[in-house]
Amino acid sequence: MMYKKLFLLSGLVLSLILVGCEFTKKTVNNVNLFTIEDDINLGLQVSQEIANDPKQFPILKEKGNEDVYRYIRKITNKILNSGKVVNRNNFKWQVKIIDDIETLNAFATPGGYIYVYTGLIKYLDSEDQLAGVMGHEIAHADQRHSTKQMTKSGALDLLLSAAIGEKEAVKQVVGGIVGLRFSRTHETEADEYSVRYLCGTDYNAAGAAGFFKKIGGAGSPPEFLSTHPNPDNRVQEIEARAKGMGCRGNSTNKTEYNRIKGLL
Ligand SMILES: [Zn+2]
Predict the structure, then answer these.
(1) Which of 60, 126, 206, 207 could form a disulfide with 242 if both were Cys (CB 3.0 to 4.6 A apart)?
(2) How far is the CA of 64 from the centre of ligand 1 (A)?
């Protein structure tokens, strides 16, 4: 019955599907019919599609921006080396910066291609805040939320076409991933993992809370500020979790953060 459902669904309804049901049980949220290899292939296809669409995704050139890239990769590596990233050695974990000062966002594809907008870097005040948001995005990739979500929504045929490089399918998947709204369960899980990762570093483990505090209820929410878990509750939950886990890091690295902001 499940397969019947899977193949009846076409890509056209993907956008509707991606909104998803917010009240599904946790177990359903964790079923994944895709393999690790599928996540990797899918991420590769999506990253290539992004690279080929500079109008929508103006990637900041590495040349001339070496300092900024070195900085963002230092943060990423700290998180990846926290000892808490399950797919640390399975996924690519490549970071690119998108040169768009208007957009307060970051996202990660399946398989660990991470994208951070200059608008987000400029907006935040300290390195732990950015690390918190990046930890959240890394968690979505590490916990394979996209393929879990798409398993749940029955987009398996589309995803498999995309994973083998079928162009139209890849395009639809890119659109889906960038605008993806995860389930409440996955959002909460990504917040939890952000704390868990940062707790294994010298950062203030509640860094992600800084972002939610700062943005309050303003503007249209980017992916990691999905409206479902209320921002105030998220701040409390993140801070309580960091405290409960006995995280001792307090590094915020503001001086260096401001220097990097000045380069953008
Ligand atoms: Zn999220």
Answers:
(1) 206
(2) 31
